[in-house]
Amino acid sequence: MGLLLSIAGTVACGEAQDSQEPAPVVSPNQGGDPALLDQSTTQTSPDRRFSIQYAPLPDPIPLNDYFELSLEIKGLEGDPPGEDWIVQVDADMPGHNHGMNTQPQVFPLGQGRYRVEGMLFHMPGHWQLFIDVGEREDSLSRTVFHVFLEHGG
């Protein structure tokens, strides 16, 4: 899990603050330091039922260009999710309060492997990649991966 940083403007004791220039406020994770974020591509789901691994194609992820993801989902005992299970993928920029401009499509390949098409990170910075897995729409477990996209892709 990544470290959530929150920086708020402060006023030093005893110092007058110019009312024309408010103290700066930085959104959580805006320009987050990649050294402080867990950027591993394999994680255990929060419900501790699955190991989820992703690989971007191409690697590294390009800036403002479509890419795919290869997913492998295994039960902690080695078994994949059921054939009829739901797997959804989305992404968000927490420091900007918006997500992708596309809706990715997930294609099952069998044996817990999936191909995700239609991914597009249109801005550099900290992205959270969400992979939801579950038997029913109302029981999805969300695993969050942190991705830091450089200006050059």
Describe the structure.
The protein has 153 residues and is mainly beta. It has a single domain (34-149), classed as Immunoglobulin-like (Sandwich), CATH 2.60.40.1930. It has no helices and 9 strands. The chain has strands at 42-44, 50-57, 67-75, 86-93, 98-99, 105-110, 113-119, 125-134, 141-149. It has a 5-stranded antiparallel sheet with strand order 1-2-3-7-6, with no helix packed on it. The protein has a 4-stranded antiparallel sheet with strand order 5-4-8-9, with no helix packed on it. The radius of gyration is 19 Å and the shape is globular. The chain starts with 41 loop residues before the first strand and ends with a strand. The relative contact order is 0.23.
For this entry, give a set of tags.
four-stranded antiparallel β-sheet, disordered N terminus, five-stranded antiparallel β-sheet, 153 residues, globular, Immunoglobulin-like
Fraction of helical residues: under 10%
Q: Give unreliable regions as ranges.
A: 1-30
CATH level 4 superfamily: Macroglobulin (MG2) domain
Strand order of the largest sheet: 1-2-3-7-6
Distance between the termini: 23 Å
* Biggest beta-sheet profile: 5 strands, antiparallel
Q: How does the overall form come out from the CA principal axes?
A: globular
Name the assembly state: single chain
- Count all strands and give the number: 9
- Give the radius of gyration: 19 Å
> Strand-residue fraction?
35-45%
Please work out how many helical segments DSSP would assign.
0
